Amino acid sequence: MSIKCAIQLGLPEAVQAHSGPISLPDLVSSMGLPPAKAPYLRRLLRLVANSGFLSLHKQNDDDVERYSLTPAGRLLLRHNPFNAGALLLVVLDPVLAEPFHHMSAWFRREEGDGDVVGGGKMVWEYVASDPEFSNLFNDAMARDSGLIAELVVKEGKSAFDGVVSLVDVAGGTGNMAKAIAEAFPEMTCTVLDLPHVLSGLEDGGNVKYVAGDMFESIPAADAVLLKVLLPKEGVSGHVPKSR
Ligand SMILES: C[S@@+](CC[C@H](N)C(=O)[O-])C[C@H]1O[C@@H](n2cnc3c(N)ncnc32)[C@H](O)[C@@H]1O
């Protein structure tokens, strides 16, 4: 929640905009906060620093505390193409976070599915019914894929040797598949996801979209990619064989 608050207040951008490590009073003024909130902002800064997103610069007791972003902290910058803050905000959105307040009650009940969110709906049922949350969610996943894809196509290049076709199962809006397709232009990359996620997306180059339910059918391909599926999808045990 501290990191969420820091992102929403624009803390990473305020630290980054300063030439060199920034002091508490400078942060309060550049973030446009009431001066009376300075002691509370200091606590927030300490928490964010303890989580590894900020470095605290203070040599002696008499020195003024100053802060700079760590490499992890730079991932929270809104305009960083590898922004990880969007995913953090979505995971902490009340839609996904609220059920965790009832975990102990859920454990005590005989019945109950672990993937139920707001209004008793299953996660994907809910996402499909709430276009605003769906956009937030898909955008966050796409940004995460941008970051991971960069690593996968560079560091994991050899894993794609001899692969002519690939299907990204539950591949969201296709950022991961697009990055792989761009790195390997000879490969056909198919993205399978639910219809509401793929609506409005069009095939392009060597990327194809297939709307459907992975529990019913998966397009045939040399390789199947599964990235960040929720446990229910991973453990339900009825993923069909690729045709
Ligand atoms: C956590 S997201 C991961 C998206 C993508 N793999 C990524 O890492 O960016 C899970 C995805 O699974 C999709 N999904 C859920 N149930 C599905 C189903 N039965 N068939 C196909 N896709 C499904 C969701 O729409 C969502 O895009």
Automatic annotation (TrEMBL):
- Annotated O-methyltransferase C-terminal domain ranges read 100-230
Tell me where in this chain the O-methyltransferase dimerisation domain is found. 1-78
Q: Identify the domain of life.
A: Eukaryota
The UniProt record lists the keyword Methyltransferase: yes
Which key words tag this protein in UniProt?
A: Methyltransferase, S-adenosyl-L-methionine, Transferase
The molecular function terms of the Gene Ontology recorded here are: O-methyltransferase activity; protein dimerization activity
Q: Tell me, what is an example of a GO biological process annotation in this record? A: methylation
Instruction: Read off the InterPro entries from this record.
Output: COMT-like (IPR016461), COMT_C (IPR001077), COMT_dimerisation (IPR012967), SAM-dependent_MTases_sf (IPR029063), WH-like_DNA-bd_sf (IPR036388), WH_DNA-bd_sf (IPR036390)
Q: What is this protein called?
A: Uncharacterized protein
Q: Which organism is it from?
A: Linum tenue
